[in-house]
Structures are given as C-alpha cells and as structure tokens.
Amino acid sequence: MSLSAKLLLDGEHVVEETRTHVKVLVVPFLFGLAVMAVAGFTYGVVGDTGGSWARIAVVAIAVVLFTITTLVPFLRWYLWTYSLTNLRIIEQRGILTRTGRVIPLMRINDVNYEKHLIDRVLRCGTLVIHDASQQAGLRLHDIPRIEEFHRSVSRLVFDNHPSQQEVPRGESS
C-alpha cells in the first residue's frame, strides 16, 4: 500500500516506502497451518459420526480462528507502512481506523538503528528516530535493509537541516 498522493505536500515526493520485515508473519502462518490441520482432522472425524450441523460448526470455528490468528496479523502487517519523503517520515497503521505520525526531517536530531543476532541474519533492524518534540522517539521495528534505510534517512536529514554557514576567519595581526 503506497502513500496516497493527496497526503503529499507541494514539491514533496516519496523516496522510500517500507513495512516491517516479513519475519513477523512466520508465527501467524504457522498458527494458520495448525488451525487448518486440526479443522481438517476434526471435520473428518465428525463427518463419520455427526450430522451436517457438526461439520458446519467445525468449519465456522476454523474460519473464525483462522481470521483471528492469521488474516488479522497479515492485514495489520500489510497496512502498517513507513514512508520516507524528501521532507518527512510518515508512519501509517490500522485496519479499520487509520492512525499515523509525521516527523518533519528538519526536526530530527538523532537517527540510529539496533540489530539483534536474528536481525543481522535477516538483514533487518529497528530504526530509532528522535526529534525536537516532547514525544518519545519513533521506533520503526523490523525494517528490511536497515542500513540502506538508515543511510537514506540520514542523508535526507542532513539535506533538510539548515546548512551551517562557514564563519570567516579573522585576520591575524
């Protein structure tokens, strides 16, 4: 899901857009497989002895469990995006109710990243951005290709901060 053009300011363009690493979907995928396996087994057992209402109940319970354990986490992952534009960082999330946070690049004071062992293997990490506000820093968890994203953010932050004017040296006597 890309950032809507109506959210962009005049002269603003998207530099990078990402979401969390796909590793966050491994556990929901395994739960989905388990739900389907148990539902298939139960449907087979109930089909031999029970009536059609029992089979319908097994299917209904399986659909509800699959939705809760697999479909909702997938939608949450798919709809939670981080967009880096030439002027700001935009975090958007939510399935039914969309919320977001916007940090102008010129207000950012510090950009760093954290990588644990598994993150190093999967080439992802957490980007931590501190700005000049009273709010806690923005933590972008499990960002794929964290070093590249960090470099892009850092480069744009430096480009958006007012350049320090070189102070002319005084003449020595």
UniProtKB/TrEMBL annotation:
Keyword list (alphabetical) reads: Membrane, Transmembrane, Transmembrane helix
**Keyword Ribonucleoprotein applies:** no
Task: Show where the YdbS-like PH domain sits.
Answer: 77-151
Query: InterPro entries, from UniProt?
Result: YdbS-like_PH (IPR005182)
Give the superkingdom in one word: Bacteria
Q: What are the transmembrane regions?
A: 24-46, 52-79
From the Swiss-Prot or TrEMBL record, give the protein name.
PH domain-containing protein
Coiled-coil boundaries: none
